[in-house]
Amino acid sequence: MTSKLVPSNPGEVMVIRKVSPNITICSAPFARFGRFKIGGRGTIVRLSSGALAVFSPIALTPEVRTTVEALGNNVGYISAMDFEHHIFLSEWIRAFPSAKVFGVEGLPEKREENPETAGTKFTHVWTNKNKEGMKVDPDFDKEFDYEYVGSHANKELVFCHKPDRTLIQADMMFNLPAHEQYSRTGEKATDGMLTKFFTTFQNTVGAATWQKRFLWYVASSGDRKGFNASARKINGWDFDKIIPCHGDVIESGGHEVYRRLFAWHLDGVDAGK
Fold first, then answer.
1. Contact 89, 57 (CB under 8 A)
2. Do 39 and 185 meet the contact criterion of CB atoms below 8 Å apart?
């Protein structure tokens, strides 16, 4: 099934670029269920200590390895940012066995069920019970705010790199179409009826009413009170840029986009929209 989700030639179609002084992104095509063009993105942050933190690791191609080496080759942290973003986790762990590995509750068990992913040693697993007291280490904690949104359907980890004022997240919000992620494929990011339909629900254009409804009625339906609390905590962070896994980077004005998308949760309104 993975072959239907990710390209067979990731190195040829991946876009690798620096988006801020300390952050490099690796963007590639990704089709959800093999049908919806939503793109995929891994993010590499260089800490002041020289260590690298990798979020939602993407295919470890020769080009990505060269990028990591140019950044110092000191991968200290690898984060599977939710219950779904772990496809390439094993190859990064094999390449950088001393790195601390982040995950969310349920993911270790999910990976143990598959012989191809079994045996992953997570150093930090976020749960609703431990999230308030969770700490990584002084080097990481001084540069990142983080919140576990266990009330999200996919159990999200959201990070904010404070020095570069950048929010890094997986499925908490989308910014489709995935133009950059399909820019080297020769395909349009908007091609296909299913992609067009899904993009209607997962864009940030204008009032973004459909994504707001998706967040309210689908993503947060299991525990809206908990989701609202997490949304408010994230809103209290200082960020301007948003790096989503799916869709284009919001290069500036990201906090206003966030407030608009999560307005019902920030206000605690029983929207009924």
1. yes
2. no
Q: Which of 100, 80, 76 is nearest to 88 (CA)?
A: 80
**Is 272 part of any domain?**
no
3-class DSSP assignment, residue 137: coil
pLDDT tens digits, one per residue of 163-199: 999 999 999 999 999 999 999 998 899 998 988 988 9
Query: What are the residues facing 100 on neighbouring strands?
Result: 77
Give the C-alpha separation, 241 to 61, whole Å.
26
> Of residues 9 and 161, which shows the higher confidence score?
161
In a domain, 273, yes or no: no
What total of structural domains would you count in the chain? 1
Q: Which domain holds residue 176?
A: 2-267
Residue 113: CB partners within 8 Å, gap ≥ 6? none
Which residues 6+ apart lie within 8 Å of 270 measured at CB? none
The answer to whether position 200 is within a domain reads yes
Q: What is the pLDDT of residues 200-240, one digit of tens each?
A: 989 999 999 999 999 999 999 999 999 999 999 999 999 99
Find tokens 């190859």 and name the residue: 91
User: Which ranges of 58-151 would DSSP assign to H, the alpha helix?
Assistant: 62-70, 89-95, 107-112, 138-141
Residues 24 and 16 sit within 8 Å (Cβ to Cβ): yes
Q: SS3 for 198-240, per residue?
A: HHHHCCCCCCCHHHHHHHHHHHCCCCHHHHHHHHHHHHCCCCC
CATH number for the domain that contains residue 140: 3.60.15.10
Tokens of 237: 């962070």
